[in-house]
Design goal:
Order of helices and strands of chain B: EHEHHHHHHEHEEEEEHEEEHHHEEEHEEH
Mean pLDDT of chain A: 77
Radius of gyration of chain A: 19 Å
Distance between the termini of chain A: 33 Å
Helix content of chain B: 10-25%
Largest sheet of chain A: 2 strands, antiparallel
Oligomer: heterodimer
Number of domains of chain A: 1
Low-confidence stretches of chain B: none
Structural class of chain A: mainly alpha
Number of helices of chain B: 14
Shape of chain B: globular
Mean pLDDT of chain B: 95
Strand content of chain A: under 5%
Number of strands of chain A: 2
Shape of chain A: globular
Chain lengths: ~230, ~650
Amino acid sequence: MDNNRKHKAEDPEPLAPVGKMSRRTMVAGTVVTVAVSAILPLSSSAFAEVFDQDMMAFLVLSAALTGVDIPTLAPEFSRGSGDILSADPGIDPINVKNAYLDWIKINDARSSFPKLLQIAKDNRLSQNDIIAKVNASDVDTKSLARSIVLLWYLGSWYDPDVLKTAAASPGSVKGPLPQKVVSGKTYSQGLVWQIAGAHPMGYSNLQFGYWSRDPHDPNIVDIFSPAKFPL
Amino acid sequence: MASNPDVVIVGSGFAGSFIANELINLSRANKRNITVVILEAGPDVQPNFNAYVKSFYEAGVKVPESPYPPAVKDSKDKDFINPKDVAAGRPSSRTVGGSKKPGDTKPPTWQDTNQAYLDQSTSKRPFKSTYERLAGGTSHWMGLTPRLVPKDFRMKSEYVDNQPQSKNKELARDLQNFVDWPISYEDIRPFYQDAEAELGVSANVDDQRFPGIDNTFPDNYEYPMPRIPPSLFDKRVSEALEQLDAKDTQFLGMKHAPTSLAVRSLPAARNSRPYRKRRACAGNTSCIPICPIQAKYDPTITLNKATENGAILRHHTVASEIMVENGQVNGIKFLTYSQENGPPTGGGVIKASVYVIAANGIETPRLLLMSKNNETPKGVANSSDMVGRNLMDHPQYLSWGLLPEPVFPYRGPLVTSAIGELCDGLFRSKRAAFRVSLGNEGWTAVVGGTGGDPNVTTLDFVNGINVSGVNKTNFTGLGGDNQALFGSQLTQTLGHLISRQFRIAFPIEQNPDPNNRVTLSSAVDALGLPRPNINYDISEYTKQGFAAAYQLKKLLFGKLGATEFTSVPDGDPAAFKIDGIPETFTYGGAGHVMGTYRMGKDPKASVVDDMQCSHDHKNLYLVGSGTFPTVGTANPTLTLCALALRTAKDIVEKLPSLKS
């Protein structure tokens, strides 16, 4: 993948080559250095940090919009002690966050994603502010925000333009909107079933007879609680 | 082939696989060697079952056919592939609806042969049930295996003969169409037991003893495995129906108005223990269309046993004509293909001593009707003109809503329990019977069309629309209608709504009607063969069954304290009204395709005898649920499997005299 192209959209400064400190990383400053010098998994090299800022912003955005906390969205997330944007999103075996981030960048026809990432960065201390700013943004940006929530909840992509048209005249929508399942993996990681106390249909890690018992038992991860925010 | 096989079977679904396997079992037991060749229109058993599971995960709309080939829509999932470009097509759940709006030049989807496999252009109402055409047949089944009850086999003598003629002309005509089976429950009982063993049925026998209905099991009967445990919803309904007023259940027309209704575990071919090297159910909640761990039985299990023991499966092989000479079948013509879109790559004729057509209730009559020649001008096995007639389903009356407290659907098998004891009674001389099926799958099969939820409800609250009907302030307590939410407000709203979803379905009996039939269309498939044409309608007798189900629904919803969200889409081609009832009704298909080459004693009024052998051709057997003269209210799979075993025994006995 062309790394230059990936960053052009959201980073007005030239991309810092590997190993050199750019103005951007210096702004984050000593906090970043402290995080790097701690014993960290391989993914938290200086090379990775420049890219992961996008991922962290995406996770901060997603947590606010979905109401699901970052450790659930990114199971190997490591908070660290500094700015949330410099935390380590981690690499987990399933890695839907990367699948979604890549997908959004490819399918963001109206270049709304940088605006959303900026809202997340600027308001990273308050989920309510992120939500308020997204609701107040232009209709394309807001529609993409909804597409992102639906990615996390269902593993499916609903195009922002489709959502925009439907939302403009709600009474005209009579059936399910067109969608594309991103992959079998993302379908199996859809969050809405867990929010409802269940699991995606066709994907159960549970044992015989569990359906006869109340779901609040150790087999089920309970994320049905307000997102815990780091700062 | 060095020499002709003893038996050729067309179709490797439930009936075909059962017969192939049983012929080989019986021949070994008798120290003979019966050779079997199976012709299968679709692809072979997959080396890796997970390929189908992956297709299911990736399907945008999770309808029953979604894991299985052939593809129904183009690669962008945008347009339907024209069925004339599919070699071995089959109906799709996505082409059973559609309405004609003013100014439309094209017919609605269900009647548009450029989109729908079945030609229903002249049908009054859509036939909504579908099937598969590949090794294992209709593996997308639910897995439920109740038996018919004794009086289901003698509808005419019990409920029509010696009854006063109904004043309602339509009802009188419907009742006159009833016939008795040429066999009784007692004749089929030992085969029910053997079929339950092969399928691996989990049930408790006490759950099958319905009050007031003949005791159909010996006292010490044991199913192969114990019952599947009930879901939380089953328990909720059970509590709600423990105490009823007789005056509130009078309308059912039972001998004694029930003062309680029992919710009982349904028998199911779903392992409750490890059984024959397959795991116990882990509650994947995707029985329809596919069990990722094969805890639900599917016919590839029996088919593989047959082929491991010498049966030969010829896949991508479509029977195109049955040849008859001097009253005997003397060969089956077939076409082969390799791509889903055809064209034919070859063909031939296969000859045997005995021929078995096990291609399902629509494809079997299609083949028989395609086989016209001087000896059989109306098609093979059709001197009675009954081939293709009396097509029956169990039209499903669907209702759904929200319970006051969470019940956590989307967990466990799709259906675990039902109310079965209303399936028989004196009322059957006036209206159709039904069972009550409790769904654990929330609204997934009912809201916004098929394969809908939780996508539909989630979309409603993310995007501020209201396809589900729930996004209204008086249900949600939110600031207004059509709310669009983010964050914890979204999780809490969805969590609280989805966890309260339920659906209840009433599969309703249909009476035979010779005008409900399968004929041939002028539309063809990619092999050049004429596709099935369907004419279908719902009778007065069945509508009266809907009326009683409607009353029971109101009672159930009231006892549950539920809020109803049942709705009928605008312009639904299946919609109908019943005199005296304000609600508009519609139906879903149960996936049961029955009646189209029925068994009977009289060759003028039936197609096969009680061994499922054609009256016209002594070396031809027609099997599957197409032989059912009446349908009762039980899912047909167990009964058709039992009959298949009985037929296999007959074939073994008759084979020496039929060997050419």
